[in-house]
Design a protein that fits this description.
By secondary structure, this protein is an alpha+beta fold. Helix content is 33%, strand content 27%.
Length: 274
């Protein structure tokens, strides 16, 4: 296999943080002014903010790295697997992750930008514009959280004490998740926090939560950027089989997965018995 050209990932990360923040500002303009909501073919919501963010990010990444292809949620139909299968390195973008949270105006939506290499996220930026909060990481370096002008190195922390801190989806928790949580509660007390978008993965990455079970549908662009942050922080993000999530599959849907600050084995055992 031919080696890929080297990239200055830390320098690129700084640029991508800026791009994500610019996209967040474009989203906030629409958030403040009001917006219409359309439905995609799959019934999921689409707003002018999704489109504006997509256009800004794809144009900016195209200028930054013109030789690296881009797969965005809003352009996925233009990149069939026959084209994508040859991509060893590509940008994977969710211009507005958590459109339901955007429509509900709870602020828990994000801009997600990841760089994938050979199926693995090697760079990730998750920006929550309403919260003025950004998570950023490149492989091999400590990830950071940017908040209110402060730059903090983050690290996943395993369970301390008897209480298990679990984060769950605000908009997509279903009966399988509830069954899993009930099984956990039979073993130890659970402190449950609900969040929207990729922030759930980031809460495990920064030590706020111990575990995030996702027993519902997600797409690769939903998770890739936060996956890069979580792995850089020492967390694990694995499917039911214990294998880390992979990207640029023929089917862009993710399997059900767990994000765990500690080794996920015991939680996988619980999940298999649900």
């Amino acid at each position: 296999m031919i080696d890929l050209p080297d990239l200055d990932l830390p320098a690129i990360l700084d640029r991508v943080v800026t791009i994500a923040e610019q996209a967040g500002n474009a989203i906030l303009e629409i958030y403040a002014a009001g917006f219409d909501v359309d439905l995609k073919d799959d019934g999921s919501p689409l707003t002018q903010a999704d489109v504006a963010s997509h256009r800004l990010i794809t144009a900016s990444l195209g200028a930054l790295t013109p030789d690296i292809p881009i797969l965005s949620e809003e352009s996925a139909e233009q990149a069939p697997y026959e084209l994508r299968r040859a991509w060893r390195r590509f940008w994977l973008v969710d211009p507005l992750d958590g459109t339901k949270e955007f429509v509900r105006r709870n602020g828990e939506f994000t801009v997600n930008v990841a760089l994938i290499e050979d199926g693995v996220p090697i760079l990730g930026v998750v920006h929550a514009p309403v919260l003025s909060l950004t998570y950023a990481a490149v492989a091999g370096r400590p990830p950071v959280r940017l908040r209110e002008g402060r730059r903090e190195v983050i690290q996943a922390e395993s369970v301390q004490g008897d209480m298990l801190r679990v984060v769950a989806s605000r908009s997509h928790a279903g009966p399988e998740t509830e069954s899993f949580l009930n099984a956990l509660r039979r073993e130890q007390p659970v402190d449950l926090v609900s969040r929207g978008s990729a922030l759930k993965i980031c809460l495990v990455a920064d030590g706020t939560a111990d575990l995030y079970p996702r027993l519902g549908p997600t797409m690769e662009w939903d998770t890739a950027a936060a996956h890069a942050v979580a792995e850089a922080a020492g967390a694990h993000i694995v499917g039911r089989d214990g294998v880390p999530l992979r990207y640029n599959k023929q089917d862009l849907r993710n399997p059900y997965f767990l994000v765990s600050a500690a080794a996920p084995g015991p939680f996988l055992d619980v999940l298999r018995n649900v």
